[in-house]
């Protein structure tokens, strides 16, 4: 029933933070502060996570994730749900949830009800906001869809990143424009169409890059995700790469010729360099 994202004996877990934790954003991090050395995340998974799909949540959290599918618990009463936690984690002493946490069939129980069913410590973390806006995964998704990258990254506490598999492209980039890696991305939410200053991670190396998302209006009219590595010919790349989004440069648009498109890409590259010189410390906005 449980899937462990990292090696951890359930018997050693004495504190659980409960939620879906998609994005592992700065709001989620307020829960993690209460876990301690033997804590873990109890992830209720609905197969809808697209900011940090799968075990990516554990990487960003720094804590092991225990995945439990929503369908397994949706019809449980509140008492049955807590009994399940105590059965799975026999040394459980603390539960940590957000202020808006609900559980039990039809979301019939609130965070406060945990104190009725659980005989250990229950920590309910208050709403976490930035300038009056509550930090939620839904807000981050909305920001990304609207190309509000700075706002999305601030709520995440880091640069938004996706992972894709390198696939064959048109071949036009290398011969007439700029060589790019073409990516096929699964699971992740794709930001709004346009051109971005990005960092591209290939194996253990990170490169400054300019990336395009959208329909190739000036060539074949197909949707693509492409990234151009600045100042370096990296040759053939196979497998998966990670794109981290630093700054939104411009919207996608059609150009009358490849020469006009190439000139615009050169401008994109010069603009991108300005944003790639430094790494923004987004968590500093909350200190």
UniProtKB/TrEMBL annotation:
One of its GO terms (molecular function) is ATP binding. Residues 155-277 form the Riboflavin kinase domain. Its EC number is 2.7.1.26, 2.7.7.2. Keywords: ATP-binding, FAD, Flavoprotein, FMN, Kinase, Multifunctional enzyme, Nucleotide-binding, Nucleotidyltransferase, Transferase. It catalyses: FMN + ATP + H(+) = FAD + diphosphate; riboflavin + ATP = FMN + ADP + H(+). InterPro entries: FAD_synthase, Riboflavin_kinase, Riboflavin_kinase_bac, Riboflavin_kinase_bac/euk, Riboflavin_kinase_dom_sf, Rossmann-like_a/b/a_fold. GO terms for biological process: FAD biosynthetic process; FMN biosynthetic process; riboflavin biosynthetic process. Pathway: Cofactor biosynthesis; FMN biosynthesis; FMN from riboflavin (ATP route): step 1/1; Cofactor biosynthesis; FAD biosynthesis; FAD from FMN: step 1/1. Belongs to the ribF family. Catalyzes the phosphorylation of riboflavin to FMN followed by the adenylation of FMN to FAD. This is Riboflavin biosynthesis protein. It comes from Sulfurospirillum cavolei.
